[in-house]
Specification:
By secondary structure, the protein is α+β, with helices and mostly antiparallel strands. The radius of gyration is 26 Å and the shape is globular.
Length: 652
Amino acid sequence: MAETLSSLRSLMASHSPPLDALVVPSEDYHQSEYVSARDKRRQFVSGFTGSAGLALITMTEARLWTDGRYFLQATQQLSDEWTLMRMGEDPPVDTWMADNLPEQASVGIDQWCISVDAAQRWESAFAEKQQKLVQTITNLVDEVWKDRPPAETNPAVIHPLKFTGLSVADKLQGLREKLRFERARGMIIATLDEVAWLYNIRGSDVSYCPVVHAFAIVTLSSAFLYVDKKKVSNEVHSYLKENGIEVREYTEVSSDAVSLASDKLRPSAVKGTDAEKIRSCETSVENGASELEGNQIDLIWVDPGSCCYALYSKLDSDKVLLKQSPLALAKALKNPVELEGMKNAHIRDGAAVVEYLVWLDKQMQDIYGASGYFLEGESANKKKDSETRKLTEVTVSDKLEGFRASKEHFRGLSFPTISSVGPNAAIIHYSPEAESCAELDPNSIYLFDSGAQYLDGTTDITRTVHFGKPSAHEKACYTAVLKGHIALGNARFPNGTNGHALDILARIPLWKYGLDYRHGTGHGIGSYLNVHEGPHLISFRPQARNVPIQASMTVTDEPGYYEDGNFGIRLENVLIVKDGNTPFNFGEKGYLAFEHITWAPYQKKLIDLSLLLPDEVEWLNTYNSRCRDILAPYLNESENAWLKKATEPIVA
């Protein structure tokens, strides 16, 4: 790391103008959370492997900002050259730069990796001391990253209507209605999952996310996909053409943004049927525009949180509509086909998780003499006749992936499995490595947070278990997390309620004991798309106020508790937002509720039954009964026998 920092500082000093600081964000050209190997620039310069963070390098310092999920992990991974900046506790990066860099300082950025929102916020912070953002001639990290991985060239594929539930034509029509309403004649779409959703295509350019590296531009009469054409087969090309989408090279998005700004962006010359389609579309657009009573349609829609500053800078800022993409909410509101697919995917996934727990339970008994998933027992040690057998965080997570891989429509994991024992479970987004991971310990808590990508849905589940004798403290903490998990899942709330208001429900049982957790409580989840999906979330963070929770959204329910150096606990299910079916309707608002679609038992031995209320016991027994009924057809006789025992009614 020291050599990398030295090389970067040499480039900063020789740059014109010389740079006082260099920003290295986590994001790629599309502001993605998960990025391909060649785009992990921040990880390369800092050694920190978490999915969220920003590195700032000056001539004398190197600082890394990350959020509460990664405080412990960053402390362990950063070398002495780096200073950890805790988001929410330390000054944000723009404030720190404005206060600590000299007047008229030059801060180097790659405009393709910085969002419009971030760039404008920083420029505002810099104004007082006349500091400025400087577009570097090249990405300086790429200059020193000698073994940078090559670009992905994986094929794009069509995602069939039987899984998407909505055609491309329907989605484009909905988008164009939004454009006309906002008096915009076009939109630049940079977010990878929005491009994939809009055009009903998928890919594998980013690990765990079935997306293609691509931009899109949609106008009132045309649509374009900017992608490496080597990824587009004849079949996909024909499919896109039939839907009025022209394929252009990935790099052409830059020049086409300029053409869009000057209203000169046009499809390539077409003949026959395609030309007739375009003329028909243009006529429809003109008729729709006339309904706006002469108001000029002249804006270009740009999402400031997801569009890179490089493309925005090519537009006339006075004619740009800076507003969240309408596709974010459209994608989050699942249609009936997507909802049914999500339910089915979670049933198969639940069966895989139960198969894993049955296997793991037997392994722990055979190797350690542990008492099992559902039996209270004493401490255990490895049996003498099992010394050659070894269960590690990685080998067991590989086994879980194998169970999932046997299920219909499986296409891979939805994120790197968090398989963590004892102190490692206190690292919220722990990622085990084969060379350094821990061996399973029957006397320590084991937490696994995992998910899969299926053609009909994306899954995300967390369970926490103990195969020996948990302490009274561990049971009390687990039960507090469980009570918060149940409280949120059972919530009834009026339309218009946001995730910021709901977040407290999962924390109150923990706050009673002075406990808490540093991550949000819930995130949206895609339909064979990204496991983290906006625009809604359930969180203490201010942005959770921006979008109300709405019927047909999917969201996770995942409170936790973590003791550094000891253990971590988290429980997570995916929920569908549905009508609340309340007996009254105060204010005529309509009320909403949640439906659990994740199926796997909670470990009874970790529950302190004395802390549960009667309605919580009733909920657990009902959930367990449904687990047995729903998963039974997918399990063999011995697995069903295990599940029956693991879900026996609780008597408080």
